[in-house]
Amino acid sequence: MITLALSKGRIFEETLPLLAAAGIEVLEDPEKTRKLILPTNQPDLRVVLVRATDVPTYVQYGGADLGVTGKDTLIEHGAEGLYQPLDLQIAQCRVSVAVRADFDYAHAMTQGSRLKVATKYTAIARDFFASKGVHVDMIKLYGSMELAPLTGLADAIVDLVSTGNTLKANQLVEVERIMDISSHLVVNQAALKLKQAPMRRLIDVFARATQAKA
Ligand code: AMP
């Protein structure tokens, strides 16, 4: 049995067509079932639904043989023990800095003053501001980051941006793009050795579907 870890939402929805290209179908809809283990039409492949930030942990410790996870999650979690054979080029977005429209970001970045930054992505944010020589007070949040500058909790946020609609709806402006993000296939190295043939076949399925899209 091969176990593939996916998270509900964009990653699940954008992974389905890659599997479908090889005739692989997930037999239940995660939006309609409370089950966390979903069968597929392949008797030796099942999908487990985990939180996006837990995918690397499941794969690292063998709770799943492979998984699909965002580059942002991989950077924050660390990729220790994970083989990353493919950039699947799905769930594409970017990590950006955003502030209130009336906040003078350029001034704040040059004055040697401290910037209050709220984010879920503390590792990415810390590296970025350190590379600019800017001191930051980091405020770790787990969601609704957009609220932080609006309530005075922070001067800036570091968050994922796709269309920019969420920022716009909250009167925030994107002032810096830190990095482009897409989802990657991650593989447990022991599983790759122990279940070589079916694992290679599945990695191949993802490779061919990704190439076909390019
Ligand atoms: P948007 O309004 O299209 O710019 O999307 C921004 C919102 O969606 C933010 O709350 C992000 O955290 C979230 N988001 C955007 N892209 C992704 C992604 N690839 N994976 C997870 N969350 C995302």
List keywords for this structure.
9-stranded mixed beta sheet, alpha/beta, D-Maltodextrin-Binding Protein, domain 2, 9 strands, 9 helices, binds adenosine monophosphate
Describe the fold and architecture.
- With 214 residues, the protein is α/β, with parallel strands linked by helices.
- The chain folds into two domains: 2-91 and 182-213, Periplasmic binding protein-like II (D-Maltodextrin-Binding Protein, domain 2, 3-Layer(aba) Sandwich), CATH 3.40.190.10; 93-180, D-Maltodextrin-Binding Protein, domain 2.
- The chain has helices at 10-20, 55-60, 71-77, 105-110, 122-131, 147-151, 165-169, 189-194, 196-213; strands at residues 2-6, 37-39, 45-49, 66-70, 82-100, 115-119, 136-140, 156-161, 172-188.
- Strands 2-3-1-4-9-5-8-6-7 form a nine-stranded mixed sheet, with helices on both faces.
- A hairpin with a 5-residue loop joins strand 2 (37-39) and strand 3.
- The mean pLDDT is 96.
- The protein binds adenosine monophosphate.
- Adenosine monophosphate (AMP) binds next to strand 5, strand 8 and helix 7.
- InterPro entries: ATP_PRibTrfase_cat (IPR013820), ATP_PRibTrfase_CS (IPR018198), ATP_PRibTrfase_HisG (IPR001348), ATP_PRibTrfase_HisG_short (IPR024893).
- Pathway: Amino-acid biosynthesis; L-histidine biosynthesis; L-histidine from 5-phospho-alpha-D-ribose 1-diphosphate: step 1/9.
- Its main location: cytoplasm.
